[in-house]
Design a protein that fits this description.
The chain is an alpha/beta fold. Helices cover 32% and strands 13% of the residues.
């Protein structure tokens, strides 16, 4: 894993596999492994354009995390970022972190520079091991063990399908607004691994209903937290790191078939290709310090953007989108150990 120590230097000047895939390693080899996504057809490009033009003035969130809009159509960056061009800065107490292995500078890096933020950290994997999103857990943990940038807060954002469009200081404010919360994740309607662990699914549904946001789950594409507590969570994630990860194609072919996943991963979620699966599995253990932003103000994910009811932030008990629920409706404290026992469970083997 390599760290861009200059944090914000223009990427064409970076070398040694450091930065946004713009440099070359010392032996002249390009450090990246994955090619950019194919350009969309005219039909698929028109839909996100119309969506952005129609709804962008109503968006009230820090990050637009939507592959259908920004992942395949990065030329929409000026529209997706709204009027923030050159107007934003990274708070001195916050470190913004990206982790990827792309050849080209991803859209999140471009959006940060577009809005005026050059102060961010790019982490990269070392070696020739095939990429898995779950490798980000180890990469980020090693970075924080070294002290990171020495700042109180860390904000992580996906690199290839998200753009920043509002002041990152708002992410810290959202974290502070959650009582007793030290790590706040964005939300999604995708249940993910909870479908394979009934105890976890029931627990997640209960917590979402308490906040008036049914069918809403943890999304690991955008999160913000206190550095020391985030490191504590990442240390706990070590127990789910295997000797090797499933290949990407195998993982996604088996994803919708519970029996196949269990046959491949008897120690599930150990060996999961997805880091989001591991975070979801750990949430009950660290609740209430580890929470989900049910208001949708931290980031807007695909399904909420493109579906009919998805354009509004989930209604709270007061019936108005985007408002925080009254104190009586907020999540109560939860016994972390008993929660972990109720959802812990189930052939890539654990690393020893």
């Amino acid at each position: 894993m390599a760290l861009d120590a200059r944090r914000g230097a223009r990427f064409p000047a970076r070398v040694g596999g450091v930065g946004d895939r713009g440099g070359r390693s010392l032996d002249g080899r390009r450090p990246g492994r994955r090619a950019p996504k194919r350009a969309p057809s005219r039909r698929h490009a028109l839909r996100p354009l119309l969506t952005v033009l129609r709804y962008r003035r109503r968006w009230e969130f820090v990050v637009l995390h939507c592959s259908a809009v920004v992942g395949r159509t990065p030329w929409l960056l000026p529209l997706a970022c709204g009027s923030a061009r050159g107007r934003l800065r990274c708070p001195p107490e916050l470190e913004i972190v990206l982790i990827h292995d792309y050849d080209d500078e991803p859209v999140m890096s471009r959006s940060l520079r577009y809005v005026g933020i050059d102060d961010f950290t790019v982490l990269r994997p070392e070696g020739d091991e095939a990429w898995a999103n779950a490798r980000k857990l180890r990469i980020l943990r090693e970075h924080l063990r070294r002290g990171g940038a020495g700042r109180e807060y860390v904000m992580y954002c996906d690199s290839s399908d998200a753009v920043i469009r509002d002041d990152p200081a708002r992410a810290i404010a959202l974290l502070e607004d959650e009582p007793g919360c030290d790590l706040l994740f964005s939300s999604t309607r995708f249940a993910g691994s909870t479908a394979y662990t009934p105890g976890l699914r029931a627990w997640a549904d209960e917590k979402a209903r308490e906040r008036g946001a049914a069918d809403t789950y943890l999304n690991a594409g955008v999160f913000v937290g206190r550095r020391e507590f985030l490191l504590e969570v990442l240390e706990a994630a070590r127990e789910f790191e295997p000797e090797r990860y499933l290949p990407r194609e195998t993982w996604f072919r088996a994803w919708k078939r519970d029996r196949t996943i269990r046959e491949l991963l008897p120690d599930f979620p150990c060996g999961s290709w997805s880091d989001q699966v591991v975070y979801q599995y750990l949430q009950p253990r660290f609740f209430p310090r580890m929470r989900v932003d049910y208001s949708g103000r931290l980031a807007l994910r695909d399904r909420r953007l493109l579906r009919g009811s998805g354009l509004a932030i989930p209604a709270t008990s007061g019936g108005q989108a985007g408002r925080r629920p009254p104190p009586s409706a907020r999540s109560r404290s939860h016994s972390s150990r008993s929660s972990a026992e109720s959802v812990s469970g189930t052939r890539i083997r654990r690393a020893t």
